[in-house]
Known about the structure:
Order of helices and strands: HH
Low-confidence stretches: none
Helix content: over 70%
Largest sheet: none
Oligomer: single chain
Amino acid sequence: MKLKVWWLSNLVWLIIFSILSFIIFIRKVDGAGTIQTPATKIVAFIVLAFFFIFIVLIQLVLLLFVNPRK
């Protein structure tokens, strides 16, 4: 049961990442009113990717505790 919750949470994170990535690449103006150029879109995506890499590392550590080796 614990592993199902782990996979479900990973699926939710993947959906969130996909939606935010899509929003970053289709928006013309960000929340501050700045016009988005391709360079600023890439920078925003890199920041988002670093955040999600951090989340993936936490998920992997949780996997070690949820599914201990026998």
